[in-house]
């Protein structure tokens, strides 16, 4: 772990603390709890730039409290603490954080693992296994303490077909990755996240101005497809995904001839 810390915690880096634990329930829950305890005790939250990595998670969560199950040492399981408000980014732009993280994950895995990935709006990382699109990773952003955000990432790296939690899941190994060494994969993802987060903050959270909006659209497998958006309140909306707008929302062109932005919900690729 010392080598990992030395590689990431350096002058000018976003990362100021990197910890690796063998086993925990959820790295996201751990950092959110630390942020809350810190705020209550000292009037300040967790602080920015903390990275918590786990070799195994026993109670990992995805969006909508879905469970994330994977064998020990089979993937990347980590969370980071961010404070975009301290950099002057308005809260209404914080919805870009899962998308920004997705771009960093996709580019890092491509560089260090030699595997093609795509992004499914808003927070899934896809790979191709046997000609089929499979989910290999997910991203979860949660409010933490006073003005903080914890972003968690889970990526299936070395899982075999018989280890997948569901048949429709995938892994980097099954997608033909050149390397499944988790150390360089993690370093590449965290360096990419440092870079994109810095650009985004410097632009005041303007995803268009810093190039994030364009980069996300270029890697998004959802755009150009007919999808069904399963919305809160048991509503559903079907249309072609035509854009990701300046607020990070998915814009659907419906059969009624209107364009409707979707800010939250499950997206099902129909074709």
Structure summary:
This protein is of the alpha+beta class and 271 residues long. Helix content is 25%, strand content 30%.
Keywords summarizing the entry:
271 residues, alpha+beta, BirA Bifunctional Protein, domain 2, SH3 type barrels, 2 domains, 5-stranded antiparallel beta sheet, 14 strands, biotin--[biotin carboxyl-carrier protein] ligase, EC 6.3.4.15, aa-tRNA-synth_II/BPL/LPL, ligase
Structural class: alpha+beta
Globally, the shape reads: globular
Give start-end ranges of low-pLDDT stretches. Answer: none
What is the CATH superfamily label of the largest domain?
A: Bira Bifunctional Protein, Domain 2
How many beta-strand segments?
Answer: 14
Helix and strand element order: HEHEEEEHEEEEHHEEEEE
CATH architecture of the largest domain: 2-Layer Sandwich
From the N-terminal CA to the C-terminal CA, the straight-line distance is 44 Å
Assign the CATH topology of the largest domain: BirA Bifunctional Protein, domain 2
CATH class of the largest domain: Alpha Beta
* Lateral arrangement of strands in the main beta sheet: 1-2-5-9-8-7-6
* Structural domains: how many: 2
The Rg value, from CA coordinates, equals 18 Å
How much strand content do the residues show? 25-35%
What count of helical segments does DSSP give?
5
How helix-rich are the residues, as a percent range?
Answer: 25-40%
Q: What about the largest sheet?
A: 7 strands, mixed
Overall pLDDT metric: 93
Organism: Streptomyces gancidicus BKS 13-15
InterPro entries: aa-tRNA-synth_II/BPL/LPL, Biotin_CoA_COase_ligase, BPL_C, BPL_LPL_catalytic
EC number: 6.3.4.15
Protein name: biotin--[biotin carboxyl-carrier protein] ligase
């Amino acid at each position: 772990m010392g080598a990992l810390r030395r590689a990431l915690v350096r002058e000018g880096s976003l990362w100021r603390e990197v910890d690796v634990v063998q086993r925990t329930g959820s790295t996201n829950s751990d950092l959110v709890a630390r942020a809350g305890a810190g705020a209550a005790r000292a009037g300040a939250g967790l602080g920015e730039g903390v990275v918590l990595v786990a070799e195994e998670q026993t109670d990992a969560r995805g969006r909508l409290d879905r469970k994330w199950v994977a064998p020990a040492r089979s993937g990347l399981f980590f969370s980071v603490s961010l404070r975009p408000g301290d950099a002057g980014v308005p809260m209404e732009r914080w919805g870009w954080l899962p998308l920004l993280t997705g771009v960093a994950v996709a580019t890092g895995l491509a560089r260090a693992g030699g595997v093609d990935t795509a992004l499914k709006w808003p927070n899934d990382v896809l790979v191709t296994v046997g000609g089929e699109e499979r989910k290999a990773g997910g991203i979860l952003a949660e409010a933490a303490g006073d003005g903080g955000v914890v972003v968690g990432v889970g990526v299936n790296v070395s899982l075999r077909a018989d280890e997948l939690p569901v048949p429709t899941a995938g892994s980097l190994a099954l997608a033909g990755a050149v390397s499944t060494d988790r150390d360089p994969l993690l370093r590449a993802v965290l360096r990419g996240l440092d870079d994109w987060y810095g650009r985004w903050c410097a632009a005041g959270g303007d995803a268009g101005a810093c190039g994030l909006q364009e980069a996300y659209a270029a890697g998004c497998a959802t755009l150009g497809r007919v999808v069904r958006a399963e919305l809160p309140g048991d509503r559903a909306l079907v249309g072609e995904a035509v854009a990701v707008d300046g607020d990070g929302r998915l814009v659907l062109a419906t059969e009624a001839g209107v364009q409707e932005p979707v800010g939250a919900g499950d997206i099902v690729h129909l074709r």
